[in-house]
Automatic annotation (TrEMBL):
Organism, scientific name: Arsenophonus nasoniae (son-killer infecting Nasonia vitripennis)
Protein name stated in the entry: Chromate reductase
Pfam families: FMN_red (PF03358)
Cofactor: FMN
Cytoplasm in keyword set: no
Ranges for domain NADPH-dependent FMN reductase-like: 5-146
A single Gene Ontology CC term: cytosol
The protein's Enzyme Commission number: 1.6.5.2, 1.-.-.-
Taxonomic lineage: Bacteria, Pseudomonadati, Pseudomonadota, Gammaproteobacteria, Enterobacterales
Enzyme class: oxidoreductase
UniProt gene name: chrR
GO MF terms, alphabetically ordered: FMN binding; NAD(P)H dehydrogenase (quinone) activity
InterPro entries assigned to the protein according to its UniProt record, in alphabetical order: Flavoprotein-like_sf (IPR029039), FMN_Rdtase-like_dom (IPR005025), NAD(P)H-dep_reductase (IPR050712)
């Protein structure tokens, strides 16, 4: 049976990041035929178009990780009602030089969490705009705007059972979407 490689990109560098925790929980769920790996974005230099002719090794390695993946899941925080700069930088790095956009045609899933009432919804909406321009097919439903509070996690910070059920539904939908896009 075919195995699919899916890269996870977390839009937060914070050590105790809720989004990183969410990503780690996601990969603990049942996900037949999918092999997950993380791509780190915190060491990427700030994108500078002058570097297009000679990108650094860290940028080339990052692009290769994306190129090797069948799909991409973005688990993102919301900063000032938008995408954290570090994530936008990673998207820009992967999109250039012109004509060498590594994101194109990689089926994308977008999910995220925030303690704020909108659960990263506005960040995800902005992210979708960018991914569309980068030519990524995106899972539209179910949406996953997760407010990080006592309805989601227990006092010890572990996900509640109903949160896991919701995440499993989301992951099943992404997995179905990924396979449909690639076949
Ligand atoms: C610069 C900055 C801007 C933020 N803006 C928002 C915001 O627009 N909406 C929101 O819900 N939370 C906002 N927050 C709070 C974050 O959701 C919170 O810090 C969250 O823990 C970040 O995700 P993480 O835990 O994965 O790092 C902001 C935090 C920072 C540091």
């Amino acid at each position: 049976m075919k195995e699919y490689k899916v890269v996870i990109i977390v839009g937060s560098l914070r050590k105790g990041s809720y989004n990183k925790k969410l990503a780690n929980e996601l990969i603990k769920l049942a996900h037949p035929q999918i092999q997950f790996f993380f791509a780190e974005i915190g060491k990427l230099p700030l994108y500078n178009q002058d570097d297009d002719e000679q990108p650094s090794k860290v940028v080339l390695d990052f692009k290769q990780q994306i190129a090797d993946a069948d799909g991409v899941i973005f688990v993102t925080a919301e900063y000032n009602r938008s995408i954290p700069g570090v994530l936008k930088n990673a998207l820009d790095q992967g999109s250039r030089p012109y004509g060498k956009n590594v994101w194109a045609q990689k089926p994308a899933g977008v999910i995220g969490t925030s303690p704020g009432a909108m659960g990263s919804a506005l960040s995800q909406q902005h992210l979708r705009n960018v991914l569309t321009f980068l030519d990524m097919p995106i899972l539209n439903q179910p949406e996953a705007f997760i407010q990080w509070n006592e309805n989601i996690i227990d006092k010890q910070g572990n996900l509640l059972e109903r949160t896991k059920v919701f995440l499993q539904k989301w992951l099943d939908a992404y997995s179905h979407f990924l396979k449909k896009q690639l076949n």
